[in-house]
Amino acid sequence: MNIDYHALAPExxxxxxxxxxxxxxxxxxxxxxxxxxxxxxLFLSFIPVLTLGFCESLEFCDDTGVRVLFGDSYVxxxxxxxxxxxxxxxxxxxxLLSVGYLESDRFWQGEYYFLLLSSALGAVVLASSRDLIxxxxxxxxxxxxxxxxxxxxxxxxxxxxxxxxFFIIGVISAAILLFGMxxxxxxxxxTTFTGIRLASAGIVDQPLFxxxxxxxxxxxxxxxxxxxxxxxxPDTYEGAPTPVTAYLSVVSxxxxxxxxxxxxxxxxxELRNIWGAALWILAALSMTVGNLIALKQTxxxxxxxxxxxAQGGFMLxxxxxxVTAGASPAQLEDAFFATVTxxxxxxxxxxxxxxxxxAVRNRLVTAEMDAxxxxxxxxxxxxxxxxxxxxxxxxxxxxAGWFAKLVMFRSALSIGGGWAIALAVIAVLNAVIGxxxxxxxxxxxxxDPIPEAIPADELRGRSIVPSLQFALGxxxxxxxxxxxxxxxxxxxxxxxxxxxxxx
Amino acid sequence: MTIVQFLxxxxxMFSFGVYGVLTRRNAxxxxxxxxxxxxxxxxxxxxxxxxxxxxxxxxxxxALFVIAVAAAEVGIGLAIVLxxxxxxxxxxxxxxxxxxx
Amino acid sequence: xxxxxxxxxxxNYVFLAIAIPMLFSAWRVVASQNVxxxxxxxxxxxxxxxxxxxxxxxxxxxxxxxxxxxxxxVVLFLFGIMITRAPLGQDVELSQPLRQRLPxxxxxxxxFLLMTGAMFDAFGGDVIPETxxxxxxxxxxxxxxxxxxxxEVVSVILLAALVGGIVLARRDPDEMTEEVVSESEEVPQ
Lengths: 503, 101, 189
Fold this sequence. Notes:
The structure holds three protein chains of three kinds. Chain A is 76% helix and 1% strand. Chain A is mostly helical. The radius of gyration of chain A is 22 Å and the shape is globular. Chain C has helices spanning 3-8, 10-31, 35-56, 59-83, 98-123, 136-145, 148-169, 178-183. The N and C termini of chain C lie far apart (65 Å). The interface between B and C is large, with 68 and 89 residues.
């Protein structure tokens, strides 16, 4: 059998890196080097993503268009490449966030980076999977190591609790997902998404098929922590080590969304009235419940946990709007584009927000909002970045988050119809609520007086760990530049939509 | 043999698993119930595979992957349970406020 | 296939002879008041599923269930229970009180009825065709030609579970620094 090694190069390099990290961990060198090897491996596996993406303009590259491998079950197209890039970038920044954090706590560093990279490998595989088996196995590789990473602060009861809760919810959702997939396989007789779509045309009304689809979506609703399947999220986010939380809220969540995107728009394309309706409800609930509870939070990490539930709701809005019966293929492409764009921008701004939280926490030890008062007075740089990321999450122009919200509203409004408009209205109300609590954190950092207990003079001018500086720099540049030049991201998003045109 | 008899058996096993997940208080027992749900999935997959006379044996391969992944998950789960036990001396789920908002 | 045809078929009695003990075992797994009994009843349920796979002519999956599930996973469960000294006596309450069990029974019962209805609607009396048992050779070919990526991915999952599981489960000496830990093979208890 002929295997297209170029198409598989990112996965292969990443898999070798995973093993290399374990080997370096054995060697009698500073544990710091395991992180370096991990970062290097992520960078190296990003190179073939680029060469595959710009294949037509490269001389040595054998341009074959979309690369379909293993009988339709594994596809390397622009959509999967863009997402592979996001996953690799997300894992890169997560490692940067972890370096300083881990050294301060004497963790099992080599094993930690090994698990993080394994999970990233799962996400990279997931982006290309077009087959129930590959999708399931990829998803398990994304989540499996994160169960362990959530409990990495072994002595801390909260971290233990985070790991157990996350694990139990994770396996239950996997079982539900699998049951749905088994029904879908049985009813359609296919495991590939194209096969399922072709076979599903005649059996759209069959209750058993609907049941399979609903179970599958339920499984994913847990993974993307959509309300009412979110209850594990805040506790896990708060209890897990903060860099792990950043990883969970970005890469792991994005992997869940990628699974939803490919399943809904490819495999279940004929059942738009079912998944559209289900995701409409989840979107409305996630935005509203996530935001309302976030308003009451006093701990910034917990606040970001609820905010990520709400942001997930915004990402589901285009799915929910697609329920409108008359939606044309072009409008569905736009909806697809909106979710992908939101996901890309969310990844950068949320990682940035967590980078700030980690940096502030390194100084203050606590993530309680009260203690953050007057941050601007003794750490103006951090306070500025805090403002940038939180206001971007709120969707204030000209930061990148604004463009994400814009395309989301645009897609819902262009599809039109009562349901889509209603969802857009709910989204607008929630954007306003969201602004309230993001602004509350920024206000605390900028205008509130410094609490008595904070030794501001000692903290003044203390420098940030270089790896964290690098992570902050990357994300700040991304958020600001993408806000001013949304064309870049729009172009990436456009590349991905060729995908839906099979309608 | 009809396909439905296997599917109904699978559905019954799955429902038992759901009942166990909803009622058990101990993490290990919840995990046992999840294993029942996965056994139901395997019954479905293999029965469908034979029913469809799948040339690629897709259902059987899927079942093999489910078994392998379930084994890994049990390993992860018991490591976490052991960790918690060492710190707290019990592994009851409801002490963990699973539903806390 | 009508019900009379079904009753006339000898295989179906084999099926019932396997399925009824399986259902009983499954019920005991979720209802038993003794943790070890629960695990042992799980063996019954899984052995039943392996027997069904043999009946269906899917031998490789059947023996994998026996080896991996019954041989490894169940033993792991028993280890976990012994090590954590889980409540072994009959007197400890392992399930939620009755007022929480009733709604759970209603939920799972209606789920079962709903699924059964949908299953009869979709397949009615459709018969599983009489074909030769699947050869392990064919399963292998299909794994290594079609599903080689998931195969490799599963190997990484198992490795990650192994490495991460050891780190979490092992006892860290509280007072020692990391350098000392990595140098000493024997961790003092």
